[in-house]
Write a structure and sequence with these properties.
By secondary structure, the chain is α/β, with parallel strands linked by helices. It has helices at 6-25, 39-44, 51-63, 70-77, 84-88, 95-109, 116-125, 128-144, 147-150, 156-160, 192-196, 198-210, 226-230, 234-249, 261-270, 285-291, 313-318, 323-329, 353-356, 358-375, 385-398, 407-414, and strands spanning 174-175, 183-188, 213-216, 256-258, 276-277, 280-284, 306-309, 336-339, 379-381, 403-405. The protein contains 22 helices and 10 strands.
Length: 421
């Protein structure tokens, strides 16, 4: 069979991206209902920093009416990608699809921005062996460098807010149910979660085992591809996705669960059709835990505490399953579960955005930090690793001593669940 030349494939893909971009941007009627939910518009008040303004810029570029100046692309790059505009849009504009199409079209028409330090970081994160090496060095830096020196390093403020760094050993491939077996699940471990939230993964495994579920952790899995996709590196993103499809296709589990809502959202949107990967449904762990039976001897102990919930944009605007977190936490007797004010507004993390656009991200985050300060919770919970890192660093800078946990960490703690070795 004769293969289609690569140049022709790329040309077809670029033409398709332009067609999809024009179709999606053409749906916008400029009603303005998205404006109150856009974090950059709320910050600046500039029309070009709003969803409808950016859609107009995208359309102008695709039609050739606007030149691709650095100033124009700066406005587009300022978008955090929270997609709150999609949830508010009465015309059904899929802003995420439009932005993806722009990035594909932009690959050939305009040189992408380059941030060598961030490119190196992503290259380290997306390879398991390099990630373990990175973890070793990060642990050494946190242990031996004073916090003042640490803050001067690239991304040092975020690193200083990391929880205790895990060891370099891999997670085991299989963790058997600790009670009567009720099911089998596969756990998506990702890259940043594997590096910075190993305790969350272990808490999830321990909790699932307590509830009677065998947990498989395919060794060949890796980064979901979202970090590369966000920066316009679709080739790397698609290779990472294909590797995960192969890894989970071999796994006997019928469902895949993830602890980072950003990864789950990425796998649901870019895996197979209808929210599956390798033919298996992908679910946020809070949604999954709400759907299974909790035996009478697996109930959390009481907790007299105010627990504030931060709703990540991926959980709220893409997965649309933010209510599952509240339902799950209400299993803890005595806990007062609170919604963080303005949860519909992004915290500023946005994948790698808080590293690329630190000034804007920190300004957006300040609103969240002020809300946390006024609410005075004992614990803050969030289901996405990027949000946790960003908020934890912000609380530390603000001098606010509030623990930031994943819901499964809090539940595992209240159930006295030992973390698997």
């Amino acid at each position: 069979m004769q293969r289609t030349p690569m140049a022709s494939v790329l040309s077809d893909r670029i033409d398709d991206s332009k067609t999809r971009l024009l179709a999606e941007t053409g749906k916008c009627v400029a009603c303005g209902l998205c404006l109150p939910l856009c974090p950059t518009y709320r910050l600046t008040g500039h029309e070009a920093e709003s969803p409808r303004g950016r859609l107009a810029l995208m359309r102008g570029l695709a039609e050739g009416r606007l030149a691709g100046s650095s100033g124009l692309f700066l406005r587009l790059d300022h978008c955090i990608g929270c997609r709150a505009c999609e949830r508010a849009c009465p015309s059904g504009v899929q802003y995420g699809d439009a932005f993806d199409s722009l990035q594909r079209w932009r690959q050939t028409h305009h040189r992408q921005r380059s941030q060598p330090m961030l490119s190196v970081l992503i290259a380290l994160l997306t390879n398991a062996r390099r990630r373990r090496w990175l973890g070793w060095w990060l642990r050494a830096l946190k242990r031996w460098l004073p916090s003042g020196w640490l803050n001067r390093l690239p991304f040092g403020t975020t690193l200083a807010g990391f929880p205790e760094m895990p060891g370099t050993t891999r997670l085991r491939n299989f963790y058997p149910a600790a009670a009567s077996k009720r099911g089998t699940v596969a756990l998506f471990s990702g890259c940043v979660s594997d590096l910075a939230e190993r305790n969350v993964l272990l808490a999830a495994i321990g909790l699932l085992n307590r509830l009677g579920h065998d947990v498989h952790v395919p060794a060949e899995q890796g980064c979901c591809g979202a970090l590369s996709r966000q920066r316009g590196d679709f080739e790397t993103s698609e290779k990472l996705l294909e590797a995960n499809q192969r890894a989970f296709a071999k796994d006997p589990s019928r469902v895949i669960v993830g602890t980072a809502s950003g990864c789950v959202a990425s796998l649901c949107e870019h895996g197979d059709e209808s929210g599956t990967l390798a033919g298996k449904p992908v679910q946020d762990i809070c949604e999954f835990l709400n759907s299974v039976e909790w035996p009478a001897d697996c109930q959390p102990t009481p907790l007299k505490a105010r627990v504030a919930v931060q709703e990540p944009c991926t959980l709220r605007n893409i997965l649309r399953s933010e209510k599952s977190v509240y339902s799950l936490l209400r299993k803890i007797p005595g806990a007062e579960i609170l919604s963080l004010p303005d949860n519909a507004i992004c915290c500023g993390a946005g994948g790698t955005y808080f590293l690329e656009q630190a000034d804007i991200a920190n300004s957006v985050r300040k609103v969240k930090i002020d809300a946390i300060r006024s609410l005075t919770p004992d614990v803050l919970v969030t289901t996405n690793v990027g949000c946790a890192l960003h908020l934890r660093a912000g609380l530390r800078v603000a001098g606010i001593d509030i623990e930031v946990l994943h819901p499964v960490e809090l539940l595992a703690r209240q159930m006295n669940t030992a973390l698997p070795a």
